[in-house]
Amino acid sequence: MSTVFNNNLKTLGLLQVSKEQTEIINGPAYKEYIKILYLPAGYKLRVDFACYDTQQPTLFFISPNQYLELEIAGEKSGYFIFYNRDFYCIQIHDQEVACDGLLFNNIRNMPKVELLENEIAFLGGLFKEMIGEFQLNDSSLEEMMRTYLKQLLIRATRSWKRQHLTHDVTDQQSDLEFFRKFTRLVEEHYKSKHTVADYADFLCMAPKTITHKFNRLRLPQPNEVIKNRIILEAKRLLVHTSLTAKEIAYELGYSDPAYFSRLFQTKTGESPSGFRANF
Question: What is the residue range of the signal peptide feature (predicted)?
């Protein structure tokens, strides 16, 4: 039975995750897709340069520009959803699910949600419904799958807020929207905009106002957030491409490669060439 919908460039698929599937999931076939992993306890995976061990059923949200490696599979099977932006774009449909900047493209790089018992039961039912829809293969398959995907994203966004934000912040909707907006701006412009003042211009506010909001949200300083995103991309390019440190500096908007190398050394404790060799 096929559990992949593919029509007019729109794709969504659902696979079971087990020890036998790890090589396929780690391979190049799914690199270009947006990915959601539901993993029971006992799994170990790497997303970019962070490792995660699941102690309980957990959802992971992985963008196409992130690097995923499933290192150890647990005893129980999980689920792997993959889809493209033609099937569902969270930016275009932001008012529907409001997950961009939280589940995806998050400046704190926390792509996971640990699940409570009622959430585990809900998702178990959701995955069964999705498999049933694939088996039925009705003409309404596409719209049903999109509905299930939106349900998953909305429930996961609520859970993410519960786990990662304090109650007072969750209650302050304007602060949460600021958090998401800043996150999305950094993700969009980090290669050309490197200072807090750049983002203050986008947001029509003073740089110190951004700093105050970050303090209230208990986030790192905004300048650190911007630099951390730049360094993450530099690490990806060092590990996954053959670009030189000078070429990477230019790629990330630095006209002075020596300055960029000093920044990288300050943030990581290693030179770009040292990081590449050690990794």
Answer: none
Structure tokens belonging to residue 177: 């929207």
Task: Dig out the tokens for 28 from the structure.
Answer: 């190049």
Q: Residues near 32 by Cβ (< 8 Å), separated by ≥ 6?
A: 64, 84
Q: How many CB atoms within 10 Å of residue 148?
A: 18
CA proximity to 108, closest of 47, 195, 33: 47
SS (H, E, C) 164-230: HCCHHHHHCHHHHHHHHHHHHHHHHHCCCCCCHHHHHHHHCCCHHHHHHHHHHCCCCCHHHHHHHHH
- Complete edge-to-edge strand list for the sheet that includes strand 78-83: 4-7, 10-17, 78-83, 34-39, 58-62, 112-114
Give the C-alpha separation, 208 to 206, whole Å: 5
CA–CA separation, 45 vs 21, rounded Å? Answer: 13
Q: Which of 128, 164, 143, 108 is nearest to 38 (CA)?
A: 128
Q: What is the spatial distance between Cα 31 and Cα 26, in angstroms, rounded to a whole number? A: 8
At 151, is the pLDDT very low, low, confident or very high (cuts 50, 70, 90)?
A: very high
Task: Give the count of beta carbons closer than 10 Å to the beta carbon of residue 138.
Answer: 10
Q: Give pLDDT tens digits for 137-149.
A: 888 999 999 999 9
pTM of the entire structure? 0.83
Per the structure block, which two tokens stand in for 153?
Answer: 């994203």
Instruction: Name every residue whose Cβ is closer than 8 Å to that of residue 169 and which is 6 or more positions away in sequence.
Output: 175, 176, 216, 217, 218
The SS3 call for residue 88 is coil
Rounded to the nearest 10°, the torsion over CA 211, 216, 221, 225 is: -110
CA distance 261 to 248: 10
